[in-house]
Every structure is written in structure tokens, then in C-alpha cells.
Amino acid sequence: MATKHGLRGGWSIDMAFRDPSSGRKYDLRNAKDQGEVKRRIRRDCPTVLVVSPPCTAFSIANQGVIEKETLEGAVEMIRFAIEICELQHKSGRHFIFEQPQSSRAWSLNEVVKLTYHDGVMKTTFHQCMYGLETRDQHGVAPAYKPASVLTNHPALFEVLQERCNGKHRHAQLIGKSACTQAARYPPGLCAAVVKGIQVI
After folding, report:
1. What was the pLDDT predicted at 64?
2. Given CA atoms 45, 46, 47, 52 in this order, what sign does their dihedral have?
């Protein structure tokens, strides 16, 4: 989407994405891979860093018992996400930290502290307004999926405020497959982010 709008796209690092330059995947729960991410940030100085740690362990829909190791790994990824957002902020560049609005990660100390940094703003939007869709027994329809972000970029704060206008029905995100697909930002959301980035 960045390339389509005349910007230079960056890289994506997570456990599900194989880095084309190295051919390997990264586990951001361990210090070695965290160090590689920080090295790339310092090398490339990205204008905007988009950080969206997995929210499964913090989902209110997850009512089962979460294993201690799983929870510790999830908390570590949130902690690291906040660390690199702070690295961007201190360097005078921008970041987006995104989680579902209902994620329990918003109550973690590291996340709460970031909200109090000078210039950091929090906003909430509904992804149905940015083109997120799913399928139910009645067919394809918009998926509500409220999300919240912290950002230090005023224009990104402005473009990430769309709330549902009530003019369409919603299809619920039910099942692992639907939730996995919905973890990808819809094109409208990507376009809104790129539009905001272009206002410096």
C-alpha cells in the first residue's frame, strides 16, 4: 500500500512471516531477535513503525486457563513492542501501537505508561468502516472489530477515528479461521495509515 501511494514500504517481522532477505522467521519473545529488530530500526530510521503484538492471551473471548509460559511470552512481546515505540518516540519519529479495544493488554503497566508520554494520543476506531469483512450464514458482511491505537503522529490520530455509522449489518468473527483473517489490516485501514503518514 505504501508503494502504491509513492512511499517506500518497510519490512515485516513476526513468527508467521519469513524475512525475504534472510529466509528466516523471528520470535520476538527472545532477546536475539529483539536485538535484530532494534538494529533494523536504528539502521533504517522508519518514518512510522506499526506495532501490533498478538492479542490472543489478552482477549476477553479467551476465557480458558492460559499457561504461565504462554502468558509470560505474550507479556514479553507487549513489553518489547512498547520499548521500540519509545525508541521511535525518543528519536523524533512516529509509531502506531495497536490492540483490540477490549484487549486486557491495555491495563499492563508498560502500556499505561506510554499513554502518558508527551505527544502520545489514544484513539479508537471500528474496522467495519475501513473495509473489514467476514462471512456468516447470510453471506459476506462488514465485521465490527473495534481497535484502539496509541500514536504520536497527529494526522494518524485523525484518520484512525472512524466509528460505525450503523448503515450496515455486521457479521461476527467466529472461529480461528475468521479471526486469523481479520488479524490482517483491511486495505481501507492500510490506505488510511498511508494517508496519515503523508501528513508530516
Report:
1. 67
2. negative
Per-residue pLDDT, 81: 96
pTM of the entire predicted model = 0.90
**134 bridge partner residues:** 141
The answer to whether 1 and 7 are in contact (CB under 8 A) is: no
List of the chain residues with pLDDT < 70: 60-64, 200
Residue burial 38-67, b: 16+ Cβ < 10 Å; e: rest: eebbeeeebbbbbbbbbbebbbeeeeeeee
Phi, psi at residue 123, to the nearest 5°?
-140, 160
Q: At what angle do helices 68-90 and 31-44 cross, to 10 degrees?
A: 20
How far is residue 50's CA from residue 84's CA, in Å, rounded to a whole number?
Answer: 10
d(C-alpha 195, C-alpha 183), whole Å: 21
